From TrEMBL:
This is 3-isopropylmalate dehydrogenase. It comes from Nitrosomonas nitrosa. The gene is leuB. Substrate binds at R93, R103, R131, D220. The record marks Y138, K188 as: Important for catalysis. PANTHER family: 3-ISOPROPYLMALATE DEHYDROGENASE (PTHR42979). HAMAP family: LeuB_type1 (MF_01033). Mg(2+) binds at D220, D244, D248. It catalyses: (2R,3S)-3-isopropylmalate + NAD(+) = 4-methyl-2-oxopentanoate + CO2 + NADH. GO terms for biological process: L-leucine biosynthetic process. The keyword Ribonucleoprotein does not apply.
Amino acid sequence: MKIAVLAGDGIGPEIIAQAERILLALKSDGLKFELEPGLLGGCAVDATGEPFPEVTRQLVAQADAVLLGAVGGPRYDSLPREKRPEQGLLAIRKALNLFANLRPAILYPELASASSLKPEIVSGLDILIVRELTGDIYFGQPRGIEQRDGQRVGFNTMIYSEMEIRRIAHVAFQAARKRKGRLCSVDKMNVLECTQLWRDVVSETAAAYPDVSLSHMLVDNAAMQLVRDPKQFDVIVTGNMFGDILSDEASMLTGSIGMLPSASLDDQNKGLYEPIHGSAPDIAGKNIANPLATILSVAMMLRYTFAQEEAALRIEGAVGKVLAQGYRTHDIFEPGTQKVGTAEMGEAVLASL
Ligand code: NAD
């Protein structure tokens, strides 16, 4: 197993350093892999003039998985658009054909008061949103703004092929199989033909997964149910635009941006793993960033790319244990708990691992 490690900018190097400690501990326990560092984002612009340099392109093409910190920072915001760190992020997703985005929204019971919802609604929340990432209205043609009958009109095309729907459905069914075995497919079939096809193809795909129970929900109802009773869901699968909105809604149910990992996968389960937060320039270099989202991204990598479920559970269990022991970085700190820095939190996870 070869893991490309792209620490990136801002707090990226600090949080990645803690994730690497966890990986190295697993290596000394017998897990076989190599870590290869590379440059992406602002640090790559500084070194090479490009946010996604050729040498990084080759590195990630040869790797089995990519672990990413975060990219970006105010220093780069005045660069031409194609030179900005965020372009490196879009380019790497495209280069690796990462069509499946997996975002868990997990709320450890100890952090239930971080949510803006009542603790009893969200405590112990553990849902997974599977979002299609390379199709839908975000990429469909034709698109544009033009003059028609003396006024401007704007238009986009919502489009999905059977193949695109089927492959993301397989990812979602397989993920559900590794969890509680319940999948809810979200669409808007009552008004959009494109999503009628979505519902039909997801239903056809279900035949290969008799052990997973499939339900369907309209997107407006799903948005409402996520805040009314989020624990009714196990895995949700949906298209690019609905997934964009619902995955942000779901992650904010937990109220703690420093806790949430994500995975973006291709059709061979090669993946890019990263925390959902950005490079947090306001706290960079201060040893106060929360490294848990990045450490939990390593657990996702072990589960989805390397099929090492036991090692993934070990990491998740270790994170649960440090929270139960009362360790908190500043973003999740509450009176009565013990405030620790980035490195100390990494140390605590290592100890409980
Ligand atoms: P952000 O997620 O970096 O920060 C938002 C707030 O959350 C800040 O107050 C920050 O201090 C806090 N925060 C974020 N991660 C934290 C952590 N691990 N521990 C504790 N607190 C944390 O979002 P932003 O400020 O809008 O963006 C900053 C930069 O990051 C921008 O350049 C943006 O383009 C970039 N960005 C990158 C990614 C990525 O690399 N995937 C994602 C989002 C934003």
